[in-house]
Amino acid sequence: MSVLSPISAADSGGGTPIFLSPPIGCDEAEFPILLRRYRLGLALFVAAIGMLFVGFSSAYVVRRGIPIYDAGTGGYSTDWEPLRLPIRLLLFNSCLLICASVAMEVVRRKTSAFVYPSETNGREVTLWLSASLLLGTAFLLGQGIAWHALVSSGRFLSTGARTAFFYVLTSTHALHALLGVLAVAAIASFGARISPARRYVAVDLTAWYLHAMTLLWVYLLCFLLFA
To answer: Which of 82, 99, 114, 221 supports an S-S bond with 125, CB 3.0-4.6 Å?
Structure first.
C-alpha cells in the first residue's frame, strides 16, 4: 500500500502543496528531508560553476590591465582590440533563456498536475514543459548563430584576448545550459516512466538549475558589454 506524503508550500518552493508517493526506502516523514538534500547538492554544483566563472572574470580583468607593446607607436598600451558584438541577437537569446526559465518555473509550480496527468490541467503542464524545452534549444541555437556571425566577420579564437574570452565565456555557459536543456528533454521523454516522487524531484531541481543558468547568463552578458 502506497503512502502519500504531503509537501507544504514552503518545502515546494512556493508552489501549490502536493502529495507524493515517497521513493522506495523513504517514508513520508523523510521525503522533505531528502528533497532538501537534493537541493543542497544542486546548490553546491551551481556554486562550483559560479566559482569557475568568477575565475574567468578575474582573468579577464587582469588580462585587460596587462600592457601590450605596440610596434607602430613603439610604446605600451592597455587598449583591447575592438570587438563588435551582435548585441541584438544576444539580447534576443537572453529573452529566450529567460522565457525558458519562466516556463519551467510554471511546470514546477504545477507539478501536482504533472504527477497526476489525469487532472484537467495536466495537458497545460505538458505544454509548458515543451515550451521550456523549445525555448532552451532556441537559446543554444541562437548562441551558435552569434558565434557564426563573429567568425563571418573575421573574429576567431586566435584573433585577440578579448575575442578569445568571449568565445570561452559564452561556450562554457552554453555547455552548462545544455545540461539543463537535456534534463528538460529527459523529463519530457521519460517522466511518465518514473515514480511521482522522483518526477517531482527532477522537475524541481531542473527548474532551479535553469534559473541559475539564466542569472549567470545575464551576468555574463552585462560583464562582456560593460567590463
So the answer is: 114
Closest by alpha carbon to 174, among 149, 205, 140?
140
- The residue written with cell numbers 517522466 in the block is 191
Closest CA to 142 of 191, 92, 184: 92
pLDDT at 204 over 80: yes
* 165 CB-contact burial (10 Å; exposed 0-12 / middle 13-18 / buried 19+): buried
Q: What is the pTM of this model?
A: 0.84
SS (H, E, C) 137-176: HHHHHHHHHHHHHHHHCCCCCCCCHHHHHHHHHHHHHHHH
Grid coordinates in use for 214?
Answer: 539564466
Q: Where are the beta strands (DSSP E) in 71-209?
A: 75-77
Dist CA 19 CA 31 (whole Å): 11
Q: Please give the residue range of the domain that contains residue 203.
A: 5-226
For 113-142, the pLDDT digits (tens) are 555 555 556 788 889 999 999 999 999 999
Rounded Cα distance, 32 and 62, in Å: 44
The 10 Å Cβ neighbour count of residue 215 is 14
Return the closest-CA partner of residue 124 out of 104, 110, 108, 138: 110
Amino acid residing at 212: A
Cβ density class 86-123: b for 16+ within 10 Å, e for less: beeebeebbebbbbbbbbbbbbbbbbbbbbeeeeeebe
Question: How many domains does the structure of the chain reveal?
Answer: 1
Pairing, β 18-20 against β 5-7: antiparallel
Q: In CATH, what number is assigned to the domain containing residue 64? A: 1.20.120.80
